[in-house]
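I hope you will forgive my troubling you with a question about protein structure. The matter concerns a single protein, recorded as an amino acid sequence and a row of backbone structure tokens. Please examine both parts with care and let me know of anything in them that strikes you as inconsistent. Here, with my thanks, is the record as I have it:
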Amino acid sequence: MYVTGARFPGRYIQAAGLIARLGAESKCFGAKALCLLDGNVAGFLEGKVRAGAEGIEPTVMIHGGECSEAEIMRGVEAARAAGAEFVIGIGGGKALDTAKAAGFRLGGVPVVIVPTIAASDAPCSALAVVYREDHTVDYDYFLPRNPDLVLVDTDIIAGAPARFLAAGIGDALATWYEAESSRKADAPNCWGTHGSPLAFEIARFCRDTILEYGAEALADCDRHKVTPAFERVVEANILLSGAGFESGGVAGAHAIHHGLCELHDVHDYLHGEKVAIGVLTMLLVHGDRTEYEMARNFCRSVRLPVRLADVGITDVTEEKLRKVAERACRPGEIMHNEPITVTPDMVVAALRQLA
């Protein structure tokens, strides 16, 4: 049976100042909640969270910084001790992933996600990336259900450094290219189905939105201003890219990201920054010079990396390029969702052009 489909959060809402409605929007899930609050934002956000939680009784737990087995279980135990009926995750990707995983471990209780940056498409997804205590990836945790509510306060997003928004644009840029590759290859998405026509239209709309509004939104973010362009890009980074990658499929750009993560050189760089290098690499692999030039110029306009040195790889060696390429092309990797056979030699040749 050939099954197509798309995945979405239960509900997505976005507005400036929306944290003030946290309780009103989430009380349908129960009276008591465990609130996993990212330690990076707790200092200035905890008061707003408590003030906005009218109608529910939140137990606040400050997230330890890593989405690890230990941190997930700490959340589970805190929720049980509090008698929590649902889980709220507030912060960056690792705090949000911990909340998703804890909700599942608690028997599938509802999960509310409140991102404080728009640096990736993780908030809407049913995926949590679990790390070891040494900060290396342990495993991808594919959960059976997407978050029940994603609440995006664009005032909070606009208060973060613009670099985070740019990284989210890099992640969103890959969505259409990878969905197109998956469509042409007739490759399944992460959940084993094939993307529906809606999935591919979402991916296209995501790309069109960031190309049109990306640079303007970044300039607005520099001034910490919430504008129509900023709102459009935040939605593209979080909702459109999230639904697009889960439903349409992932492929070479993220495989290159996985390869780059094998190098210590890149560890200070954000996910979307490395994904942007993945997009450019794959366009070179495909030999699409016109599209490559367009994408490179766009990346420059939104402050994304276009050379290996831009993600910390200043000493480019054959050994490093080979390590990236071998990891990106290993058996079972999403590189094999590309419509052509991609070999490590092809990846090395493309990476050399970015040196």
Summary: The chain has a mean pLDDT of 96. Residues 17 and 36 are 20 Å apart (CA to CA). Residues 197-222 form the longest helix (26 residues). DSSP finds 13 helices and ten strands in the chain.
